[in-house]
Design brief:
With about 650 residues, this protein is mainly beta. It has one domain: Quinoprotein alcohol dehydrogenase-like superfamily (Methanol Dehydrogenase, Chain A). Helices cover about 10% and strands about 30% of the residues. The strands form ten sheets. It has a five-stranded antiparallel sheet, with no helix packed on it. A five-stranded mixed sheet has the order 2-33-34-35-36, with no helix packed on it. It comes from Fulvimarina endophytica. Its cofactor is Ca(2+); pyrroloquinoline quinone. Its EC number is 1.1.2.-. One of its GO terms (molecular function) is oxidoreductase activity, acting on CH-OH group of donors.
């Protein structure tokens, strides 16, 4: 592992570790405080509950139709822009896809870049990125008496980087992933106490997945927990899964694999985290096993495809629930985890975790111990599974839609893209509604055998994708849905179809309005109670990030990244035509280029387009220095005497 330091000596940084312990819980407290302030958006899910919910009400059902562009910012980078900017204490921090430039803007005058941090990366990272060169966001640590606030960035070349939030100077960077074996970084870092958590990407290249904790001040690795292999590598606590031993307990990271297949078995995590300070557990999902061809890896392939609850201090796992044992369809389970406290069907108040999975099931667990509370189909067209047995947690498969060698599986729903993918969804605690951006895509699947070669794609299946049964398969449209879901009743309060997948995720607000972006380039606002479309705006490019909102100088703004790309956009951004290319995405989204083209930036909206520039039209105007003014005035003095009469 390589280590780079820029702004402090190793000795002073080591001393900072000693000072870090007393401030750890204070860092959490400060982040919670900042997240509760509607002026801020301090992490990708807005708060530790990861609910993307804002209490701001200036923009509401009655006023949302008056939203207009207030200002915008171009990152200067094409390809897919996922995640959200961060807003902290009047500053906005913006990230881009590769080359992963980071910008800071002062919201008093966002027309001027306060600082920009441009890394120099190994360009070969682009060649091993699975599904475009995206990045899902930044993380913020509030600082203490020893070290000032920091911004954390992941880079496609596998590095985690700490940046001084005030100056943009790189403080340290660590090599988390090795691109020579296909391991890249696209995940948004996640700060808990004085640790920053980072996942990994590359399961499609046979990378063995892990999550790693680094000290925020020094970059020193605290611990690393793998998804496969020996228990000591996976970091299983002594009481692991004690409340649910039927989920599986010890030695399964090896015993559920054939031979040494676990060493190249996938299970990467490139999605989203959530954290409960009261339980002191963080939650995330591990991804698909490698290769996609299930014949090459007999067994349940634990602990890929699992929901994890871990201690952030030492990484020890309290529980893990595997959603798709022996995955046959690339249903990588890294999707968003949203935390809530609700009464269950028996009226008992419980601390819940709700997770819309790529496999087409939305799961709700008791996050204190991993108990499975519910497992509902995201859409009634899910067909690989008939139901999930709530007693055992095991999905009851329909063999008609299984995969195997020398067989082409037809009309499998959902496709490998899942009925849910990387989108970061939202939860409205007042309405007890989860707003979910859904894919509506099915597939044909034909596996083939292939050898493992480090740094090369290790998939073993050819896919054709197309709209689900509710879409228009002849026109290749109707590839998405947006839904409001009640995790207790299992009911969908409303649902609407979209032309393309609602890939980026959603925002919920106390104003009774939910927002999302679309691949064809709209940001839309719907009535949270009914789903009625209240407002939309055509962005310069398709949106695969999720909207966010913040307040500044007493005014509420809504912002969203534009920049089409990601897995659904690979055909467009890389100019591919073979329908099976892009792991099947090119065929599914063959019509996308007729609705949008590449771009890259942030669009910010407010009521009537008001901003610091409408408050004072002179904000940000060029002002000459006093010396320049004097020189200008001298040049403007009228000629006199003989000079005036000359000619």
């Amino acid at each position: 592992m390589k280590r780079f330091f820029y702004s402090a000596s190793a000795l002073s940084l080591a001393a900072a570790i000693v000072m870090a312990a007393p401030s750890a819980s204070l860092a959490n407290d400060k982040l919670v405080e900042l997240a509760n302030d509607p002026q801020n958006w301090v992490m990708t899910g807005r708060n530790y509950d990861a609910n993307n919910y804002s209490k701001s009400t200036e923009i509401n059902k009655d006023t949302v139709a008056d939203l207009k562009p207030a200002w915008s910012f171009s990152t200067g980078v094409l390809h897919g822009h996922e995640g959200t900017p961060l807003v902290v204490d009047g500053m906005m921090y913006i990230h881009s896809p590769f080359p992963n430039t980071t910008f800071a803007l002062n919201l008093d005058d966002p027309g001027k870049i306060v600082w920009q941090n441009k890394p120099k990366q190994d360009p070969t990272a682009r060649a091993v990125a699975c599904c475009d060169v995206v990045n899902r966001g930044l993380a913020y640590w509030p600082g203490d008496d020893e070290v000032g606030p920091l911004i954390f960035r992941t880079q496609l070349d596998g590095k985690i980087v700490a940046i001084d939030a005030k100056t943009g100077e790189t403080r340290w960077e660590m090599e988390n992933s090795d691109i020579k074996v296909g391991s890249t970084l696209t995940i948004a870092p996640y700060v808990i106490k004085d640790n920053v958590l980072v996942g990994s990407s590359g399961a499609e290249l046979g990378v063995r997945g892990y999550v790693t904790s680094y000290n925020v001040k020094t970059g020193e690795q605290q611990w690393r927990a793998y998804a496969t292999g020996p228990d000591e590598d996976i970091r299983l606590a002594e009481n692991f899964n004690a409340p649910n031993p039927h989920y599986g307990q010890k030695n399964l990271g090896i015993e559920t694999w054939e031979g040494d297949a676990w060493k190249i078995g996938g299970g990467t995590n490139w999605g989203w985290y959530a954290y409960d300070p009261g339980e002191d557990l963080f939650y995330y999902g591990s991804g698909n096993p490698a290769p996609w061809n299930e014949t090459m890896r007999p067994g349940d392939n634990k602990w890929t495809m699992a929901i994890w609850g871990r201690d952030p201090d030492d990484g020890m796992a309290k529980f893990a629930y595997q959603k798709t044992p022996h995955d046959e369809w690339d249903y990588a389970g890294v999707n968003v985890m949203m935390l809530s406290e609700q009464e269950d069907k028996e009226g008992k108040m419980r601390k819940l975790l709700t997770h819309p999975d790529r496999n087409g099931i939305v799961y709700t667990l008791d996050r204190t111990n991993g108990d499975l509370v519910s497992a509902d189909k995201i859409d009634d067209t899910v067909n690989w599974v008939t139901q999930v047995d709530l007693e055992t947690g095991i999905p009851i498969r329909d063999p008609e839609f299984g995969t195997r060698m020398d067989h082409v599986g037809r009309d499998i729903c959902p496709s490998a893209m899942g009925y849910h993918n990387q989108g970061h969804d939202s939860y409205d605690p007042e309405r007890q509604s989860f707003f979910m951006g859904i894919n509506h895509i099915c597939m044909d699947w034909e596996p083939f055998m292939l050898p493992y070669r480090a740094g090369q794609f290790f998939v073993g299946a050819t896919l054709n994708m197309y709209p689900g049964p509710k879409g228009d398969r002849q026109a290749n449209l109707g590839l998405g849905q947006v839904k409001a879901y009640d995790a207790i009743s299992g009911d969908f309060k409303w649902e609407v179809m979209e032309r393309f997948a609602a890939w980026g995720g959603t925002l919920a607000t106390a104003g009774g309005v939910m927002f999302y972006g679309t691949l064809d380039g709209f940001i839309k606002a719907r009535d949270s109670d009914t789903g009625e479309l209240l407002w939309k705006f055509k962005l310069p490019s398709g949106a695969i990030g999720h909207p966010m909102t913040y307040e500044h100088d007493g005014r509420q703004y809504v912002a969203i990244y534009y920049g089409v790309g990601g897995w659904p956009g690979v055909g467009l951004v890389f100019d591919l035509n073979d329908p099976t290319a892009g792991l099947g995405a090119v065929g599914a989204f063959s019509e996308l280029a007729n609705y949008t083209q590449m771009g890259g930036g942030v669009m910010v909206f407010s009521l009537d387009g008001e901003s610091v520039y409408t408050d004072d039209v002179n904000t940000g105007e060029y002002e000459p220095t006093s010396a320049q003014k004097g020189e200008r005035d001298a040049n403007l003095k009228p000629a006199s005497g003989s000079e005036a009469n000359r000619g």
